[in-house]
């Protein structure tokens, strides 16, 4: 019995000792861990990078950040830019420090990720891609630090402009990064004022520029629409030799004087036709201008571009103008009045080439400009001036397009005339007079005359007797011709004479008539 009690007592003692030592060891290690290695817990509104770790214990935070870093490394996309060129930063050059991030984080705040970028890797990449810049050690260190700061927010993709970290002395050595020159430009006073106003105008990195706003900000004063168009065109030609982005550009119906085809940027402040562009670089550029005679140069001064830009024209087509004839009573001269000289139409395509040294990297079509032909306009007189008419010799005369002729006959007998016809606006008449002396019949014939249109015939009379006659003569007048003839007859016979007829420019009947001679009972002619 006593042995059983003794055994039970020993067993209970061992059990209690074991429990005591276990609790002491566990509690001691827990207390020692919390005291020597305290756990970092976070309260409300605590963020590390893009991750919310509010009310998280350290272990939870470590797990969340570990998964987040894996995700960042899986979609790592970092571009390092210098002006218009860039290269990809490899993931191997970057190390995310999870424990260091937790150690530096503060509860209730927004905390960055701790990122380490390998400086030697950055130096190698810079020399491989932008070796012409000859980076200093300080610049490499500044660029490395800049990349680290950008990656601390834990977002992708990421872009880093190294020009922000270059030595300030480089800015003092800036030269013309791009320029354009127009020759043969009318250098008016307004244009000179505009050039002086924009001298030194600053085009900020990442900014968009409106030409109308630029002129307003520069207090350029009053410029005509053509002067502003010439100035904007010069700026446009310089912008084409950069990596700037063209946002808005228009052309006119007719190419302004002094502006090369393909490089016009039309401006109209009344209709708000503007020229707009964007500088996508991280650096700014200043406008510089220069005038020499009729040659004007505009430069964009700043850090040089990595690539070289150039433009050329292709696919040029010309279109000939038509001649438009108009008629006006105000024009009196034979030579027409020229209202518009006319101008050829043209179509041209502008190409932009990008070079990396002697190697062409790419080219792109900038625009296709079309200017329709301007037609020649001639104003002529309504009708030619009338020419003076020619006059003719003869006894015939014109009256209202008619001719009158006279002729005589001598002898005894009767003469009669027949009707003729003509076409026109007036009639022509011819008369024949015959004198008969003696018995018998004299026959007389009329001669026909012609006018501009239409003809008349003279009639004949029958007289008795022995005829002896003369012939008529042809005479012409203005607008028609008449014939005159005379004949004398003596003895017992009659004389034949000819009557005169004339025709003119007219319609109607041409009548030739003979005067009948009366005789008394003794056979003697009665004189009229």
Structural notes for this entry:
By secondary structure, the chain is α+β, with helices and mostly antiparallel strands. 22% of the residues lie in helices and 32% in strands. β14 and β15 (295-302) form a beta hairpin. The model is unreliable at 29-34 and 386-515 (pLDDT under 50).
Distance between the termini: 212 Å
Which structural class matches the secondary elements?
Answer: alpha+beta
Note the overall shape.
Answer: elongated
Number of helices: 8
Number of strands: 34
Largest sheet: 7 strands, mixed
Query: How much of the residues is beta strand, in percent?
Result: 25-35%
- The percentage helix is 10-25%
The radius of gyration is 58 Å
- Give unreliable regions as ranges: 29-34, 386-515
| Average predicted confidence as pLDDT | 77
Biased composition (Gly residues): 402-411, 419-459, 467-511
Organism: Bhargavaea ullalensis
Region (Disordered): 380-528
Protein name: VanW like protein
